[in-house]
Amino acid sequence: MRIHWHRTDLRPSDNLPLVTGEDDPILPVYVFDSRVLAHAAPPRVAFVRDSLTTLREWYRARESDLLVVRGEATEEIPRLADEYDADTVSWAEAYSGLGRRRDDRVTARLADASVETRTVHDHLHHEPGSITTNDGDPYSVYSYFWKKWRDREKASSVAAPGAARLADPGVETPIPTLDDLGFDDPEATIPSGGYEEARHRLNDFCSGPIYGYKEARDRPAADATSGLSPHLTHGTVGVRTVHDRVVRAREAAPDETAREAVETFRGELAWREFYHHVLHFNPRVVTENYREYENDIAWRDDPAALQTWKDGETGYPIVDAGMRQLRAEAYVHNRVRMIVASFLTKDLLIDWREGYDWFRQKLADHNPANDNGGWQWAASTGTDAQPYFRIFNPMTQGERHDPDAEYIREYVPELRGVDADLIHDWHDLSPTQRRRTAPEYPAPIVDHSERREQALTMFERARGEADD
Ligand SMILES: Cc1cc2nc3c(=O)[nH]c(=O)nc-3n(C[C@H](O)[C@H](O)[C@H](O)COP(=O)(O)OP(=O)(O)OC[C@H]3O[C@@H](n4cnc5c(N)ncnc54)[C@H](O)[C@@H]3O)c2cc1C
């Protein structure tokens, strides 16, 4: 018997470690690992529970079942291997430092009990170390990584295991509630989980919206992106399935513009892999700057401003809309993530780690590779990051990407009756004009031009180029 340990691969098909080898029957297991839960938050746990429910139904329809347990994986996996007399345990490789340390401990415990482990690279098309510079080093510049990633052949998706290969654990294990696991209900409405939902999203997106992706992906009001991020994070869809479908969309593209849009989308899938490679080779980035400056960056300790940012009360409409979308939907549009991250680090001069921590608590799609990559990009501390002197102006960003203020009005009800021009000029209105226009909406908490200068000085000091 082989135990398959599901982690961030909550799907039956296109799951390489699940189908690998011939050592049947396969007993599927999920562990609510207390060490992992210590870093988790309600939106992600809710998404995982939802996804486990559909995965369990899939197994039950095949006279098998998903065994769901709680505890420390280092204890539970060896215990189950012993209880079910398994000779092998399989799982998909993890890329974070936390995940790899846990897997090393489980492997050692299993080896002591003479149980084999089979680990397979499954979450990425090209595993860390397989796309490198000519000297064999990992890339720190995305555009070079992309050229190799783009041209490298990709494996196709694999079918789910047949019912005959699956074992029945002989007991029914309930999926613990959020309360059982020590979490409150999420504040947000969480996107639906599960492999079927992922498949629908992928098909819907690739049947039309993908052809407008290049042009519309930066417009948060347009609903023009795939919405696949929680599914890719939790593995309710396999990367090969996504890519196969995207390639079919490219083959069916009506013209060159549509083909280019598909290629732009593939570029985002490559960013995901790039950041996973960065994390794999630099596990320290979850708490430290990737990029070293000569001096420490003198971030401000400003709890009141941080709270205002979290609450979406900064008086910068596009920033507040994004922060309120996060609270309402456990999701934020990519362009707006960039804007709110830039605002926290370059206007409020607050350390990116505060923002990363808030996103970790609030996003359903949080994963350390992409989240950290995004934050360190915006803070100019990451690999291939935004240069420190290129500072987003939140007013012009709002005007450019949400010209009719549709997105802003959706999440900031105080501005619903207000003309887009006034919304985008909010920073320049007089106090009287603001009171007359939208009395409930706050005045800007900082002056962007002043803060921009202070941010430049902060970075120049860190670079050793300005006096204290
Ligand atoms: C500060 C910040 C924090 C972020 N945190 C996360 C996070 O925790 N989890 C996460 O999945 N993404 C994160 N991103 C990247 C990006 O914002 C989301 O992946 C995207 O908004 C998800 O929406 P979508 O699935 O509709 O994306 P689409 O535009 O449809 O893209 C398809 C997929 O490509 C990947 N992708 C897209 N953009 C990026 C990117 N810039 N970097 C890496 N991968 C990308 C995602 O897996 C995404 O699902 C972050 C970006 C920033 C700037």
Automatic annotation (TrEMBL):
**Secretion signal, residue range per the UniProt entry:** none
Q: Which residues form the Photolyase/cryptochrome alpha/beta domain?
A: 1-125
UniProt keyword list: Chromophore, FAD, Flavoprotein, Lyase
In this chain, the site described as Electron transfer via tryptophanyl radical is at: W299, W352, W375
Q: In its keyword annotation, does this UniProt entry include Lyase? A: yes
Residues annotated as binding FAD: 213, 225-229, 265, 268-275
A molecular function (GO) held by this record is: deoxyribodipyrimidine photo-lyase activity
Q: What is its EC number?
A: 4.1.99.3
Which Gene3D superfamilies does the record match to this protein? Answer: 1.25.40.80, DNA Cyclobutane Dipyrimidine Photolyase, subunit A, domain 3 (1.10.579.10), HUPs (3.40.50.620)
Query: Is this entry keyworded Iron?
Result: no
Q: Name one GO biological process term.
A: nucleobase-containing compound metabolic process
> Which note does the record give on the cofactor?
Binds 1 FAD per subunit.
Q: Which cofactors, if any, are listed as required?
A: FAD
What PANTHER family does this protein map onto?
Answer: CRYPTOCHROME (PTHR11455), CRYPTOCHROME CIRCADIAN CLOCK 5 ISOFORM X1 (PTHR11455:SF9)
Give the UniProt family note. Belongs to the DNA photolyase family.
Name of the featured protein: Cryptochrome/photolyase family protein
Provide the species name. Haloplanus litoreus
